[in-house]
Amino acid sequence: MTQATARHLLVDSETKCIELKEQILAGAEFDKIAKENSSCPSGAQGGDLGSFGPGQMVPEFDQVVFSAPINEVQGPVKTQFGYHLLEVTSRTD
């Protein structure tokens, strides 16, 4: 079964999400930005979500995680929780 590892950060506005993505693309470390800004408990681990399979996350999340290129920041992705930046760190089929 397909498995992925990913990290993410969660904020409450699309504007803030875009600002953070720009910082990361300009060279800021994803884990540091997640620790400082994410409202998700995973922020304490730099946004690390560990390993998971399809259907374990909300559909909007799964769609990105199981199709996006590895090690590229994706987002903003809107879910019922807010706005996410996602980075798939590995994926196996």
In short:
The protein is α+β, with helices and mostly antiparallel strands.
CATH fold descriptor: Chitinase A, domain 3
Largest sheet: 4 strands, antiparallel
Broad CATH class: Alpha Beta
Count the helices. How many? 3
Strand order of the largest sheet: 2-1-4-3
Give your account of this protein's structure:
With 93 residues, the protein is α+β, with helices and mostly antiparallel strands. The protein has a single domain (3-92), classed as Chitinase A, domain 3 (Roll). Helix content is 29%, strand content 34%. It contains three helices and four strands, in the order E-H-H-E-H-E-E. It has a four-stranded antiparallel β-sheet. The longest helix has 12 residues, at 14-25. The radius of gyration is 12 Å and the shape is globular. The termini are close together. The mean pLDDT is 96.
Keywords:
alpha+beta; 93 residues; Chitinase A, domain 3; 34% strand
